[in-house]
Amino acid sequence: FLNQVAMERNSQLLVDPNTPSTPLMRLKMQEDAKQLKEEMINQMPADVWEKCKKYADKEDDNKEEWKGQRYRSGKGGLTSQWKQTIQTNFNVDWIETIRTCVLLLLFGYFGGQNSFSKQLMYWGAPLSILI
Length: 131
What we know:
Blueprint: H1 2-15, H2 25-43, H3 46-59, E1 65-67, E2 70-72, H4 78-89, H5 94-110, H6 115-130
Antiparallel strand pairs: 1-2
């Protein structure tokens, strides 16, 4: 019911962007959602309301949830979670990374003034992939 109230508020803002907003808007929207729920219960027969509630409770058994901004599904094991974590956390721009790696190798081979600077550039090439 809170989603319906929020959609109503968004439509009001689309019609008139200068609609006044207060710091207590969230509380007012929650109260409006409770009032909307009570109105729905009063308009609907009790047996229909129970069937709807029962159906909504069945849908909650699939272990899907929102945690912050991340969506979690109960599907998949350790391997798929591991792959997803790597893909998310190590989202590498391969074109830029390969270019940097090759440049560090070339600078290390041709441009190193002493052995320390050569070693530093050689070690920087594979580290550019991790960073």
